Structures are given as C-alpha cells and as structure tokens.
C-alpha cells in the first residue's frame, strides 16, 4: 500500500492544478494553429508540444523536470539559458538570406531601422508598469519580432522572465498574418497601396561577398554586444555568397538550423511550467509584446509615408511593415496586401529589403541594450 501511495503521489493526477490544465490547452492551441492555419508550423509545433511536456505535473525530486539540475531537459535548456542557441539560429538564417534586395535599394534600410521604434517605446512602457531597466530592455526587444534575439537578450538581462518573453516573441511572430494587415490598411490609403516600385537593380557577386564582411565590422564596432548574433549571421551569409563553401552553407541553412530549431522550440515550450509561468508579470509581458509588435509595424509604415514626401520614386508604404524581423513572413504579408489591391504588383522582393534590415537592426538594438543595461 505504501508503494502504491508513493506511486500516486509522484504522478500527474495527485500534483495536477488548474494552471497545468490551462497551459495544456494553450499547447494544444499552438499545435492547432500550426497544423490547421499554417501559422509558423516549424516554430509552433515544437513549442506547443514542449508546453505539453512542461505541464504534465509530477513530484519534485525525480530529476526529470526542466528546472531540476542534471535532468535531460535541463541540459537541453542550457542552450536557451546560456544563450548559445540564438547565435546558431542566426548562422542558419545568414546562410539562407539574400541581401541583394537591400543592397540594390539601400534607402529601404531606413524602414528596417524605423521599425525598431517598437523596441524602445515598449522599453519605456515596461518601465512605467514597474519592471526594472534590465527586465524592460528584455521585454522591449519583443518589438523586433525576432525570437532568437529576444531569447539571447533576456537570458543575459532577465532570466527569470525568459520563458514568458520567448513565448510572447514567437507567438507574435507566428501571428504576423493576423496582426499586420489591419494595421497596414488603417494607416494607408488605397492610392498608396497601389504604388508600383521600380525594379531592383542587379547586385554584383563582389558586392555580395564584401557586404557581410564590411557590415559585420561596422555593426560590431557600433554595438559590440551584438557580436555573437551578427557575427554568426554574417558568417553564414559569407558561406552562402563566397561560392566555395556551398556544402557548409547548405548544412547551415537546412539540417543544422532545423536541429537547433527543434531543440529551442521544445525546451522553450517546456519551460512554461504553470507554477512559474502563470503570473501577473507574464500577462503584462504578453500585453507589452502585442503593443511592441503593433508599434513596430506602424512605425515602419508611417516612416515610408514620410519618406514619400521627399522622394521622387515613391515607396509603397505597405513594405514599411516588413521592417520587423519576422523573415520572410512579414514580407509575404506585404506581397499579399499589395496583390489584393493590384494582382500585378509584386512587392515581395522590395519588402525583403526592410525585412532583412530589420534582422540586423534588432540585433544591433539588442547589443546596445546589453551594453547599456548589462
């Protein structure tokens, strides 16, 4: 009888709480959105199942939980808490990113920079709600819509809120097709959405090779705190563009990034133990994250409209929304919005310019915050 009671006390039913039930429902919703709605399935399926893993309750001391030192999940989670999964993700992103659209029309870089306003305005909002400066900086980076960067910065500045910040960042990245279209339509006129931009000029191979080297040196000197992220991003891009390391580039942008994405997604999901995750602070983080993403989208669109006041060759302000770092989903949303107004208007290549600029911009912003607040 004592053995049976010990077994029951260690099991899920004895330790089950309403919070666990709520998080299990959230995990199932994530999986549903990924499978039924095709919202970032490569992220939401691992995260959703990770939430299920992290919210099956058990008696502490079995050395199986993600917060128990020495457990398998804890060892895998160290890539998140110590911040070495995000740079590896950036390596893969660099190996699959084409910066040609940005290099052919450098003025569009400004749209990626403008979208980072969401980061700094949310930082101020988080301070107003009672978070300290380090926590506010980590929350603000959600406005960049860049999950790896959010994880990297929060692991350094606010590890106690890492799970909430990571889930918030990835949730809003997945909901780009839902959040951005209403904001774009609200801030633009039909005439503006019909603007056709001039075709991009070709970019030489020499420029594509030199760009990751020069861009890394410039950005690293401006924001040394971003060296780990931008170093791997531009290294991956050099592997792609130099033409003599195709095997390495192919590995980085396929099998390697897939492995890291699986590990990161599952462990971030598993970190959402209801006893640690369901707090008033987490709800504030989700609210601030939504505001950050909306502000970043609006800032990019409004800055494009401002640029049109002085430009002869007008920019379709729709592509300003692509200044957030959700690559390439935000650029796809811009293409969808443009095609809805004019089926012959192809915006995706133009939108990729602020989109990849946003990746660089959010990493630089994270480096600035890390240097300032760390």
Features:
mainly alpha; 21 helices; 374 residues
Characterise this structure:
The chain has 374 residues and is mostly helical. It has one domain. The protein is built from 21 helices and no strands. It has helices at 2-10, 12-15, 18-36, 41-54, 72-81, 85-96, 100-104, 109-114, 117-128, 133-140, 147-157, 162-174, 176-187, 190-193, 205-222, 227-241, 246-270, 274-277, 280-307, 329-341, 348-373. Helix 4 (41-54) packs parallel to helix 17, helix 9 packs antiparallel against helix 19 and helix 20 packs antiparallel against helix 21. The longest helix has 28 residues, at 280-307.
Q: Give the tally of β-strands.
A: 0
Based on secondary structure, the structural category is mainly alpha
- Mean pLDDT rating: 89
Radius of gyration of CA atoms, rounded to a whole number? 21 Å
- Total separate domains: 1
Strand content: under 5%
Count, helices = 21
Q: What is the overall silhouette?
A: globular
pLDDT < 50 runs, ≥5 residues: none
Q: Gap between N and C termini, in Å? A: 54 Å
Order of helices and strands: HHHHHHHHHHHHHHHHHHHHH
In helices, the fraction of residues equals: over 70%
Largest sheet: none
């Amino acid at each position: 009888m004592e053995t049976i009671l010990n077994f029951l006390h260690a099991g899920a039913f004895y330790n089950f709480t309403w919070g666990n039930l709520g998080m299990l429902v959230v995990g199932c919703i994530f999986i549903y959105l990924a499978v039924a709605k095709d919202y970032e399935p490569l992220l939401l399926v691992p995260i959703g199942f990770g939430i299920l893993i992290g919210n099956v309750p058990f008696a502490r001391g079995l050395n199986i939980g993600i917060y128990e030192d020495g457990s398998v999940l804890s060892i895998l989670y160290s890539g998140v808490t110590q911040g070495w999964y995000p740079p590896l993700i950036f390596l893969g992103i660099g190996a699959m990113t084409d910066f040609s659209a940005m290099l052919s029309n450098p003025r569009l870089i400004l749209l990626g920079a403008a979208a980072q306003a969401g980061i700094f305005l949310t930082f101020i909002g988080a301070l107003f709600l009672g978070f300290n400066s380090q926590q506010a900086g980590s929350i603000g980076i959600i406005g960049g819509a860049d999950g790896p960067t959010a994880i990297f910065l929060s692991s350094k500045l606010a590890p106690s809120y890492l799970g909430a910040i990571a889930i918030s960042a990835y949730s809003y990245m997945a909901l780009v097709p839902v959040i951005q279209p209403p904001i774009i339509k609200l801030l633009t006129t039909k005439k503006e959405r019909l603007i056709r931009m001039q075709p991009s000029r070709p970019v030489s191979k020499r420029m594509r090779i030199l760009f990751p080297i020069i861009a890394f040196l410039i950005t690293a000197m401006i924001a040394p705190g971003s060296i780990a992220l931008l170093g791997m991003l531009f290294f991956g891009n050099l592997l792609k563009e130099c033409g003599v390391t195709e095997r390495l580039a192919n590995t980085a942008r396929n099998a390697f990034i897939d492995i890291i994405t699986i590990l990161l997604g599952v462990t971030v999901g598993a970190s959402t133990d209801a006893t640690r995750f369901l707090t008033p602070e987490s709800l504030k983080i989700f609210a601030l994250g939504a505001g950050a993403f909306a502000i970043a989208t609006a800032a990019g669109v409004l800055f494009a409209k401002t640029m049109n006041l002085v430009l002869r060759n007008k920019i379709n302000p729709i592509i300003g929304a692509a200044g957030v770092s959700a690559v390439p989903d935000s650029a796809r949303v811009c293409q969808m919005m443009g095609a809805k107004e004019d089926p012959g208007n192809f915006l995706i290549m133009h939108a990729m310019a602020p989109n990849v600029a946003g990746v660089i911009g959010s990493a630089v912003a994270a480096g600035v915050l890390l240097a300032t607040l760390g």
